[in-house]
Automatic annotation (TrEMBL):
Keywords: Signal. This is Uncharacterized protein. The lineage of its organism: Bacteria, Pseudomonadati, Pseudomonadota, Gammaproteobacteria, Lysobacterales. The keyword Signal applies. Residues 1-23 form the signal peptide.
Length: 136
């Protein structure tokens, strides 16, 4: 069976669309700590946990590279995902994460912080689970 020119063009466009959607998919953040310039502007998917002292530092530690932590850029708006995480850190129990666990699934963009390190700006918070132990 011979394909008509229209069918050939349609198949070509489908292949291009599939290739483009794959090229734009988010990748892993692992390695950005060691080569920030290669990752700046890239979209990443992070499954990990939040670690914070409650005052100075809030980082996300990805499950896939647990030896790397990435600072979360401050919120731009009051309903920003970074604000939601900050409220969980500060309003449940003691400030920080010493008395609670916060796990997250998020999309983020890798940014360059003022000190030259790689950090993240959360673009979408898919899930946040806060575990706070019961009082004894």
């Amino acid at each position: 069976m011979r394909l008509l020119p229209f069918q050939c063009m349609a198949m070509f466009f489908l292949l291009v669309i599939c290739a483009c959607s794959h090229a734009n998919s988010a990748g892993s953040i692992c390695g950005a700590k060691h080569s920030p310039a290669k990752f700046v502007g890239k979209s990443v998917v992070i499954h990990g946990r939040i670690v914070s002292d409650g005052m100075h530092t809030t980082v996300v530690v990805p499950d896939q590279c647990s030896d790397e932590g990435y600072a979360i850029a401050p919120a731009e708006k009051d309903d920003d995902a970074a604000t939601i995480i900050r409220q969980a850190i500060m309003r449940v129990g003691a400030p920080g994460t010493a008395d609670k666990d916060i796990s997250v699934e998020m999309d983020a963009a890798v940014i360059l912080l003022e000190n030259g390190d790689a950090g993240i700006r959360i673009t979408k918070l898919h899930r946040m689970v806060l575990t706070y132990p019961a009082s004894k």
